[in-house]
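ARCHIVE CARD
CATEGORY: sequence design from structure
SOURCE FIELD: tokenized fold
FIELD CONTENT:
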């Protein structure tokens, strides 16, 4: 929302910032029990997550711009994905890496899932969401990740239910509700 407000010179409602702060607080509450036992890689992960958030936010600005110009989201998605593939191919060629085509079926199933479902379709639906509810509100959906991640880690058996996890999930949901709720009609 901050980049969108700068890029389009618009004012973002306070409820978006309040919801975002609750989302950040939920992450802190979830990781608090492990705060003193975090490995060095955790801080590298936080750095990459922050960098990824900035890049995604810039992408949201471009997506909102494309939406305002009525650009077809499928065309925008194809251009973006194609550009990424060209960049990666050039990068690996410049670094002198060689290509080997894997023969394992698991690789191909995973590649198809990641490229079609987790990337192309997910981004397409996100672009449609920006079109329908606005860039600031759709950008806030990221604040639900702590809740989704917490619930998924319990279901997959990677985490145990704890008071911190429950409280963090509840805060993330409250933050999303506050940020995305429609104003009362008066």
């Amino acid at each position: 929302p901050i980049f969108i407000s700068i890029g389009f010179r618009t004012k973002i409602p306070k409820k978006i910032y309040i919801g975002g702060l609750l989302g950040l607080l939920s992450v802190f509450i979830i990781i608090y029990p492990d705060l003193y036992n975090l490995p060095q890689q955790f801080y590298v992960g936080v750095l990459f997550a922050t960098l990824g958030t900035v890049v995604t936010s810039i992408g949201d600005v471009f997506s909102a711009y494309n939406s305002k110009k009525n650009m077809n989201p499928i065309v925008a998605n194809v251009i973006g994905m194609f550009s990424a593939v060209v960049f990666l191919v050039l990068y690996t060629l410049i670094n002198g890496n060689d290509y080997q085509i894997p023969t394992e079926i698991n690789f191909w199933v995973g590649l198809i899932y990641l490229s079609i479902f987790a990337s192309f379709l997910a981004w397409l639906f996100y672009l449609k969401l920006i079109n329908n509810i606005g860039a600031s509100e759709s950008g806030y959906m990221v604040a639900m990740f702590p809740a989704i991640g917490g619930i998924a880690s319990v279901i997959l058996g990677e985490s145990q239910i704890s008071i911190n996890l429950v409280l963090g999930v509840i805060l993330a949901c409250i933050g999303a509700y506050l940020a995305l709720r429609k104003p009362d009609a008066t």
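CARD ANNOTATION: The helical segments are 2-8, 14-31, 40-68, 73-94, 105-133, 135-139, 145-155, 163-180. The chain has a mean pLDDT of 82.
SHELF: design records, drawer C
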